[in-house]
Amino acid sequence: PPTPHPTKRGRGERRLLYVTLHPQPAKPAMTSNSHLAARDLAVVWHPCTQMQDHEWLPMVPVVRGEGCWLIDADGKRYFDAVSSWWVNLFGHAHPGIAAAVAGQAQRLEHVLLAGFTHPPAIELAERLLAHAGAPFAKVFYADSGSAAIEVALKMSFHYWRNCGEPRRRRFVVIDGGYHGETLGALAMTQIPLYREVYGPLLLEPLVAPSPDAYAAGPGVDACEAALAAAAGLDELLAQHPGEICALLVEPLVQCASGMRMHHPVYLSRVREICDRHRVHLIADEIAVGFGRTGSFFAHQQSGVKPDFLCIGKGLTGGFLPLSAVLTNNTVYDAFYDDYASQKAFLHSHSYTGNALACAAALATLDVFDAEPVLERIAELGVALEIALAPLREHPHVAEVRRCGLIAAVELVRDRSTREPFPWQERRGLAVYQHALTEGALLRPLGNVVYCMPPYVATAGELEWLAGVARRGIEHATGVGC
Ligand code: PLP
């Protein structure tokens, strides 16, 4: 494989060599990795993890990043095929972004954004609005994707209230959607794995059918599936006149539910339906924004504009937590009044519009301005699809799909019926474990193995990565291709 960086010998291995040459009483070698992992497991509770898994699944302590590669404490390198939960765009420790953050840290690290402002927050809002285009006119900052969703939900609800329609207090979401983990965002999430336990605490949105082309079944055209789902939404909205604030959609790819993809016609049809029922359209582009689907913003492929655009993750190139909600002046003006009218949007987070994060975001936009990023994504996407193509014939693969630089392989027990592997078998995890041995971070979503690499990957690296995925799937299913 064209792994450009062979694994370096780590301290632990040198010590093993010494032990072999100089026999000593048997004692397990304490590598830098295992030392850090032991300290970590004594004190850190990790996200999205059954901690007991780490009795047999190694924790990987990363000490450095270089481009697409992460380097552990023993010197082993891992290709970050999932952009560290979809945040990294231009590689780890990108020099331009790192310099921008360092420079900003020496001028101003943070100032509250109420009553005060700073040049990076202003410039970033200007440049984001230029990318999004009219009628987007205002940017509200937050500090995580979930927080941006909370902002959009509250703004939409509050808008209708300010406009004299307080009966509008429900939201509509799409089946299989994911919008975060704070209680408001989790309520909108329609993935039982994350939502079910907390159900008693959550708002109950109305759920519209998913436009997911895979779920529609084999042979169903993606455009037909999208139009059928949109018709279902239309019916749902018709049943609740004057009750609904907004519809929440992940444009083009429902990422957390397994990189499920749909046709762009869905969003254009949905825009028309929302307008007809006087319901806001919130686009959650926290995962799919900033080029992932091939366009700067995913909704741009459908030619329509949402009322709220939520962005996060790649906004800072993967350097710092920052998110934002973009909206138009119709929404903004509904809050603009005498203080005593109590129409103001009083939502706040301490780190709203943090100056270091804004500087990282500006440096990220500089890369988009200076380099042909979208062209590169188009080329790499094709290379990735070609490299994964042999998996289309695998007896335990129901579909290989791609949108921009997001590619996914759907593992199933029975290809002819698309019967999934029971989740308890954790086949995707077996692929992950195998990939680690070959030096790739290929964290799955259940039975879906996917890649969403940084844009600085090379075609050769993606070909190698597809080989790792193929061998991992062979390992996980016992069948090669
Ligand atoms: N919305 C989408 C579509 C996401 O994929 C995510 C995270 O994966 C979120 C919202 C929540 O973002 P965060 O994890 O930054 O809170």
Folded structure, characterized:
With 481 residues, this protein is of the alpha/beta class. Helix content is 37%, strand content 15%. A seven-stranded mixed β-sheet has the order 4-12-11-10-7-5-6, with helices on both faces. Strands 1-2-3-15 form a four-stranded mixed β-sheet. The chain has a three-stranded antiparallel β-sheet with strand order 13-14-16. Strand 1 (62-66) and strand 2 (69-72) form a beta hairpin. Helix 4 packs antiparallel against helix 12 (355-370), helix 9 packs parallel to helix 10 and helix 13 (373-388) packs parallel to helix 15 (459-477). Pyridoxal-5'-phosphate (PLP) binds at residues 144-146, 149, 178-180, 250, 255-256, 284, 286-287, 312. Pyridoxal-5'-phosphate binds next to helix 6.
Tell me, what's the shape?
Answer: globular
Approximately how much beta-strand content do the residues carry?
5-15%
Helix content: 25-40%
- The number of helices is 15
Mean pLDDT: 94
Largest sheet: 7 strands, mixed
Give the N-to-C terminal Cα separation.
17 Å
Number of strands: 16
Strand order of the largest sheet: 4-12-11-10-7-5-6
Rg value: 23 Å
Q: Which ligands occur here?
A: pyridoxal-5'-phosphate
